[in-house]
Amino acid sequence: MDTEGSQISLSSVDNSPHDPCKMFIGGLSWQTTQEGLNEYFCKFGEVKECMVMRDPVTKRSRGFGFVTYIDQAGVDKVLAQNRHELDSKTILQSSHPLPWRQLCTLLAFSQPASPGILV
Questions:
Q1: Start and end of every RRM domain (predicted)?
Q2: How many domains does the chain divide into?
Q3: Which domain holds residue 56?
Protein backbone atom coordinates (compact mmCIF):
# COMPACT_ATOMS: atom_id res chain seq x y z
CA MET A 1 0.00 0.00 0.00
CA ASP A 2 1.52 3.33 -0.95
CA THR A 3 1.12 6.64 0.88
CA GLU A 4 -1.54 7.73 -1.59
CA GLY A 5 -3.60 4.64 -0.75
CA SER A 6 -3.82 3.65 -4.39
CA GLN A 7 -3.09 -0.06 -4.12
CA ILE A 8 -3.94 -2.88 -1.77
CA SER A 9 -2.34 -6.12 -2.86
CA LEU A 10 -4.03 -9.03 -1.12
CA SER A 11 -1.05 -11.28 -1.80
CA SER A 12 1.36 -8.94 -0.04
CA VAL A 13 -1.16 -8.33 2.73
CA ASP A 14 -1.66 -12.06 3.33
CA ASN A 15 2.07 -12.80 3.47
CA SER A 16 2.97 -9.96 5.81
CA PRO A 17 2.84 -10.59 9.54
CA HIS A 18 0.25 -8.68 11.55
CA ASP A 19 1.90 -5.72 13.27
CA PRO A 20 0.23 -5.42 16.69
CA CYS A 21 1.34 -1.78 16.89
CA LYS A 22 -0.47 -0.82 13.66
CA MET A 23 -4.02 0.43 14.08
CA PHE A 24 -6.71 0.85 11.44
CA ILE A 25 -8.51 4.15 12.10
CA GLY A 26 -11.96 4.40 10.52
CA GLY A 27 -14.71 6.99 10.47
CA LEU A 28 -12.38 9.92 9.83
CA SER A 29 -13.74 13.27 8.76
CA TRP A 30 -13.09 14.09 5.12
CA GLN A 31 -11.14 17.11 6.45
CA THR A 32 -8.77 15.08 8.65
CA THR A 33 -5.18 15.44 7.46
CA GLN A 34 -2.20 13.21 8.10
CA GLU A 35 -0.77 15.92 10.37
CA GLY A 36 -4.04 16.16 12.33
CA LEU A 37 -4.23 12.39 12.73
CA ASN A 38 -0.63 12.28 13.95
CA GLU A 39 -1.17 15.19 16.34
CA TYR A 40 -4.19 13.48 17.93
CA PHE A 41 -2.69 10.01 18.29
CA CYS A 42 0.78 11.10 19.46
CA LYS A 43 -0.90 11.95 22.81
CA PHE A 44 -1.05 8.21 23.48
CA GLY A 45 2.53 7.29 22.60
CA GLU A 46 5.35 7.75 20.11
CA VAL A 47 3.97 7.39 16.57
CA LYS A 48 6.24 5.56 14.12
CA GLU A 49 4.04 6.09 11.05
CA CYS A 50 0.74 7.78 10.33
CA MET A 51 -1.27 8.02 7.11
CA VAL A 52 -4.69 9.08 5.88
CA MET A 53 -5.65 7.01 2.86
CA ARG A 54 -6.60 9.04 -0.22
CA ASP A 55 -8.30 8.29 -3.51
CA PRO A 56 -5.53 8.05 -6.12
CA VAL A 57 -7.49 10.06 -8.70
CA THR A 58 -9.25 12.77 -6.69
CA LYS A 59 -6.72 12.87 -3.81
CA ARG A 60 -9.70 13.16 -1.41
CA SER A 61 -9.65 11.32 1.90
CA ARG A 62 -11.19 7.85 1.84
CA GLY A 63 -12.32 8.27 5.46
CA PHE A 64 -9.80 5.95 7.06
CA GLY A 65 -6.12 5.70 7.84
CA PHE A 66 -3.46 3.88 9.81
CA VAL A 67 -1.39 4.75 12.87
CA THR A 68 1.63 2.67 13.85
CA TYR A 69 3.16 3.09 17.30
CA ILE A 70 6.76 2.39 18.30
CA ASP A 71 5.52 -0.05 20.94
CA GLN A 72 2.37 -1.74 22.25
CA ALA A 73 1.94 0.81 25.07
CA GLY A 74 0.57 3.42 22.65
CA VAL A 75 -2.02 0.98 21.29
CA ASP A 76 -3.05 0.00 24.82
CA LYS A 77 -3.57 3.65 25.78
CA VAL A 78 -5.76 4.27 22.72
CA LEU A 79 -7.87 1.22 23.49
CA ALA A 80 -8.16 2.17 27.17
CA GLN A 81 -10.01 5.36 26.24
CA ASN A 82 -13.67 4.70 25.46
CA ARG A 83 -14.29 7.67 23.17
CA HIS A 84 -12.18 9.41 20.57
CA GLU A 85 -13.13 12.58 18.71
CA LEU A 86 -11.15 14.14 15.89
CA ASP A 87 -12.22 17.06 13.67
CA SER A 88 -15.68 17.12 15.28
CA LYS A 89 -16.30 13.45 14.50
CA THR A 90 -16.50 10.66 17.04
CA ILE A 91 -14.35 7.65 16.24
CA LEU A 92 -15.51 4.44 17.89
CA GLN A 93 -12.96 1.84 18.89
CA SER A 94 -12.87 -1.92 18.81
CA SER A 95 -10.26 -4.10 20.43
CA HIS A 96 -11.19 -7.08 18.26
CA PRO A 97 -8.42 -7.76 15.74
CA LEU A 98 -9.37 -8.67 12.18
CA PRO A 99 -7.23 -10.69 9.79
CA TRP A 100 -5.84 -8.47 7.01
CA ARG A 101 -7.84 -10.26 4.30
CA GLN A 102 -11.08 -9.70 6.24
CA LEU A 103 -10.13 -6.06 6.83
CA CYS A 104 -9.51 -5.51 3.10
CA THR A 105 -12.86 -7.11 2.27
CA LEU A 106 -14.58 -4.95 4.87
CA LEU A 107 -12.98 -1.81 3.42
CA ALA A 108 -13.94 -2.75 -0.12
CA PHE A 109 -17.64 -3.16 0.70
CA SER A 110 -18.22 -0.78 3.62
CA GLN A 111 -19.73 2.69 3.66
CA PRO A 112 -16.93 5.29 3.46
CA ALA A 113 -17.90 6.96 6.73
CA SER A 114 -18.19 3.84 8.91
CA PRO A 115 -16.44 4.58 12.20
CA GLY A 116 -13.91 2.42 13.96
CA ILE A 117 -10.48 1.82 15.34
CA LEU A 118 -9.16 -1.68 14.81
CA VAL A 119 -5.89 -3.16 15.91
A1: 21-98
A2: 1
A3: 10-118
Q: How far apart are CA 58 and CA 64, in angstroms?
A: 15
pTM greater than 0.85: no
Give pLDDT tens digits for 33-59: 999 999 999 999 999 999 999 999 999
Long-range (24+ apart) CB contacts under 8 A made by 1-10 are: 1/53, 3/51, 4/54, 4/56, 4/59, 5/51, 5/53, 5/54, 5/55, 5/56, 5/62, 6/56, 8/104, 8/107, 10/101, 10/104
Q: Dump pLDDT digits (tens) for 73-119.
A: 999 999 898 889 999 998 855 444 555 555 565 555 554 444 555 55
